[in-house]
Amino acid sequence: MADTSQPTVFDYASPTTWRIRFARIPKVEWFCTNVNLPGISLGEALYPTPMLDTYLTGDKLTFETLEMTFLVDEELQNYRQLWDWMVGIGAPKNHNQFSAQLGEGSNPTSYSPTEKGTTPSEGGLYDEATLIIYNSKNIAKVQIKFKDIFPTNLSGLSYMQDATDVDYFRADASFRFLYYEFETST
Question: What pTM does this model have?
Answer without folding.
Answer: 0.81
